[in-house]
Amino acid sequence: MQKFQCDCGNRLFFENTHCLACGSEVGWCPSCATMTALTFAEPGLHCGRCHAEVWKCANRVEHDVCNRNIPAPADPADPAGAGALLCDCCRYNDTIPDLAVEGNLERWRALEQAKRRLIHGLDSLGLPHGPGLGDPEAGLSFDFKGDSVASGNFWRKVGKQEMVYTGHADGKITINIREADTVEREKLRVDLGEGHRTLIGHFRHEIGHYYWDKLVQPDGGRLAAFKALFGDHENPTYQDALDRHYSDGPRPDWQSAFVSAYATMHPWEDWAETFAFYLDIVDVMETAAASNLIAAPARDDLKALVETYVRLGLLMNELNRALGLIDFLPELVVPGVVEKLQFVHDVVVAARSGDAPSYASASGA
């Protein structure tokens, strides 16, 4: 994430809605692609940097869950198309949480913050999403739903038929809003023995499944290379692999070739976990470079990206341990993981540039 600055000189952060120094309303400008102060002048609201006329996203006006703006419509009395008053991130929503349930507005706000960071990361990589893939049926969308009803500070137990599973299917990413409850999410992290369990991690993992469907599966050569590196996604079946994983657990030597224990469950999950880790690396490197903590490695040099990330991660681990916090970098970035990261990197670069990547290392040729 790059650095942002208010007109008054104070630093702004990606999630800000107001400058904490001067009190100005701030938001994301779609014209100059930055966080900026919002100024009022005829005929309306303007970006403080590029002076483009903008409107606030309807989800900010009505619910205060967004901080992005949209270009002012040519005819304010007749903005074109359904959902035209929603920003480029909120337009992906199909289902939002039930706002009649206490606490769901705050959970939705946290989900939107993570989703905006996801979309920003994809845009920063030049990675198309939704119709930008050139396929009108690409259909990326989000459902934010709950399987339980809040009662005080406790959650009612529900049956299987009432549960909402976080996952991806045919372009639809579903997030159980329970994941936006910090206490509940931490309980699950500990119960499942995960190094990290975060909202942005869920979004990055599930978008990995989306890109497998759009960028890997349709390409015969790329699919063959995927199988050679990650395994055959058709044998065993996903359900058989899921049952085995939750009955037997991960293979004991998983750290020798996988980024997480969950990645051992099935090749699809290995890809999604690796894809999410790749997005982690790119975002952390951009943020650290923008803050002058590191000299930015070339984005297309995966080896340099990984080496710099690991060096920074080990330092951050020691800093976190000094404060009694969990490790910043729980993963072991072994050669097998780097090889899979290279495959993900090649797919991303190809989607961005249209160039065909080489899969010699992945296929063993």
Short structural summary:
The chain has 365 residues and is α+β, with helices and mostly antiparallel strands.
Order of helices and strands: EEEEEEHEEHEEEEEHHHHHHHH
SS class: alpha+beta
Task: List the total number of helices.
Answer: 10
Rg estimate, integer Å: 21 Å
Number of strands: 13
Give the low-pLDDT segments.
150-159, 356-365
User: Can you give the helix content as a percent range?
Assistant: 40-55%
Residue share in β-strands: 5-15%
Strand order of the largest sheet: 8-9-13-12
Question: Kindly state the mean pLDDT as a whole number?
Answer: 86
- Outline type: globular
* Largest sheet geometry: 4 strands, mixed
| Number of domain modules | 3
The N- and C-terminal alpha carbons lie at a distance of 37 Å
Question: How would you portray this structure in words?
Answer:
The protein is an alpha+beta fold and 365 residues long. It has three domains: 4-87, no CATH class; 89-215; 219-365, no CATH class. Helices cover 40% and strands 13% of the residues. It is built from ten helices and 13 strands. The strands form five sheets. It has a four-stranded mixed β-sheet with strand order 8-9-13-12, with helices on one face. The longest helix is centred in the C-terminal third of the chain and has 24 residues, at 267-290. It is globular. The chain starts with a strand and ends with a helix.
